[in-house]
Each structure stands twice: as C-alpha cells, then as structure tokens.
Amino acid sequence: MSTGVDTRDGAEVLVQSNVFTDVDEPIAALYSDDTGYAVAIDNDLGGESNTAPVGNLTASSMPYSYSLLGSGSVVAAVVGTAGATLSF
C-alpha cells in the first residue's frame, strides 16, 4: 500500500496505537493544496516516518473517553479477531 492515513484540507487527525506494515507513507499530508495535520502517538510505522505536519489534538480534547490497546498488542488482537472465521 502506498498511503495509510492521509490528512488533507486543513483536517487534523489523532492517530494512536496503530501498526503499519509495508506502507510507503503510513501517516502523511499528500495530494492537496491545503495540507492537514496529525498527532501521532504510539504507532509502529514499519520503519517509515510520519510526514504530516504536527497538529494540536489531544485525547483529553475528545468528547468521550477511551482506552488504548497499545501498538505492541495490535497485531495479535487484529489477527485473532478481525474478519470472518471459517470452519469446515
């Protein structure tokens, strides 16, 4: 995949506890005259870098509460539970 999260048009995204594998631009601000912003916390970018300008969002600015799984636990959680499970 070439791009994971692409923030544009002045948007601001909070990207937390993700794992990107084989992604050229995991977090970026591409393809727009009006760039966007990203606050990236606890992400495994697979050896690549976040090229989006830093924004100002914080978890405390969200109108709800949530807890993070942590990037170190994401692969096992997704592989173990995402998608259809077939049995024959």
From TrEMBL:
Keywords, alphabetical: Lyase, Membrane, Transmembrane, Transmembrane helix
Keyword ATP-binding attributed: no
InterPro entries assigned: Pectin_lyas_fold (IPR012334), Pectin_lyase_fold/virulence (IPR011050)
Presence of the UniProt keyword rRNA-binding in the record: no
GO molecular function: lyase activity
Domain of life: Eukaryota
Residue stretches spanning the membrane: 64-86
Protein name: Putative pectate lyase A
